[in-house]
Prior knowledge:
The protein is an alpha/beta fold and 645 residues long. It is built from 21 helices and 27 strands. The strands form six sheets. It has a seven-stranded mixed β-barrel with strand order 21-22-23-24-27-26-25, surrounded by four helices. A six-stranded mixed β-sheet has the order 7-6-3-4-5-20, with helices on one face. α3 links the parallel β4 and β5 (91-93). The radius of gyration is 24 Å and the shape is globular. The two termini are 40 Å apart.
Amino acid sequence: MGLTLAEKIIKAHLVSGEMKQGEDIGLRIDQTLTQDATGTMAYLEFEAMGVKRVKTEKSLAYIDHNTLQTGFENADDHRFIQSIAKKHGIYFSKPGNGICHQVHLERFAIPGKTLIGSDSHTPTAGGIGCFAMGAGGLDVAVAMGGGAYHIQMPGVINIKLNGKLRDWVSAKDIILEVLRILSVKGGVSHVIEYSGEGVKSLSVPQRATITNMGAELGATTSIFPSDEITREFLKAQGREADYKELCADDDAVYSRVIEIDLDKVVPLAACPHSPDNIKSIEELSGQKVDQVCIGSCTNSSFTDLMTVASILKGHTVNDNVSLSIAPGSKQVFNMLAQNGALADIIASGARVLECACGPCIGMGQSPNSKGVSLRTFNRNFEGRSGTADGQVYLVSPETAAVSAITGVFTDPRTFGQKSDIKQPESFVINDNLIIPPAAEDEADNIEILRGPNIKPFPKTEKLENTIESNVLLKVGDNITTDHIMPAGAKILPYRSNIPYLSNFCFTVCDKDFPSRCKEYPSGIVVGGLNYGQGSSREHAALVPLYLGIKAVISKSFARIHGANLVNAGILPLVFKNESDYDNISMLDKLVLDDLITSLKNNPTGLLTVKNVTKGTTFEVIPQLSKMQRDIILAGGLLNYTKEQN
């Protein structure tokens, strides 16, 4: 029996465990990346481990999230990250160099390598055949220190692409079609692996658009084979030596096979407020548009923006539409400027933003009240744009640009002949905003520069034998990390200040949650299906930890957030019977006894929860591997790592 592409890479990097679906495995990690919204905490954690030099093949620190500097906080954090990168062997990508995933795809991602990043869209690099996963900052810190990254061995879903896309239909429409088929929960515990003749018609940036939004499926990662298309891209980036042919065996066995005929895919949109709420643009045609934002790590490549420029050329943005465009990297920005496409974009009336995440994370360009915003981004969670009642739709660059001109949802297939935009034979390469680390013998002389906004990692304690706490919050299905710990220009600058962030925890769901936590010595959160989907931000675990949350009981967990809860020392528990969710009310007192003995004997064994308030009991299942059991008992991954060293 042959191996899938994912299994081949896992096998080559396996350091512990067996390749049986659901079993805990440890993987050797070749590369890591961080971004500034999660990086400060990751590097504080790395420092706490006492490791002098990163032990990966290459680690990079990108500045792309908190680039709006309205106070000292972001600038101080950038200075801290730059100094710690220089001291500990990490490459530093300065603000303005671009979005981490776009730059990494261009300059560093390598077929067949493993990569984890403290950002959930790290699987973007799967477009080049890299096994790339989003992770919490603490997991990234451990990998930088030479530790393995532990996951449950995933199953593999094969999506076989047949045929070729028609004009005006793009890679974004493919992944929206996949989301329509699988939903935001459909990829959980699986890798999404693409194959078929249709793969040969997709460039590496197009493939990366698809793997980027695989994060919205809840997948462990997504990956394309590495083939001649990959070689051409790497050659154009001056990196042909990094090429390696990779594909699944012909007799590979998959958990599920889904076939998509590319010539039947039509322009699509993810409607508010979920990436799997899919409708065709034809269905939405004629509805008014207030704002269009083009960019993000999903759709800001050179070919994406050249396509946009060709549409805008000779046209003017509709009077009632605000159009903003953000190139994904300095490389893209330079090339648009050199070939004249930037002039076409500017002449149309578009607002050109810096090479950063920007509006995708609510960092500027929030739409008007109840405004309809078409975005080429990857998430449209409620309130993520910075406008609580903003109506955000996820669309392709083609749909976005055409609709910006007409002022209404417009199927781009009605716009006439499409320009044939090809990948250049060579990209403009200038890595002058990537600063290499100091030599190892000079590292001791590097001073770490800390600003007053940087606060210590929250204190964690070993698991107590009994948890006796009140339910301080009850929420429904598909709660995202944006619900738990919001982003946006007002909050992101305090990502290194957990005490300050605690004032905003869960306020999207319940504005009284932070103050309620301060009234009780400890608490439990109760959730529905797919709790913690979305971003990899470990702050969604660290801030509840700071507020005294001891456990989260839900119907199911998103992979990264479940791991982050464990890393923070918060016990993740799943209802044995989902109907028990309905019998719990806010402020009910819940008791779990004999935890230490129970978990030591069986980390996935049933635990009984007493609802003291209602005089009832129900059963829950710990969401723990054997290693995670030990992490929980130690009081979190940082404590566990210290105990092992």
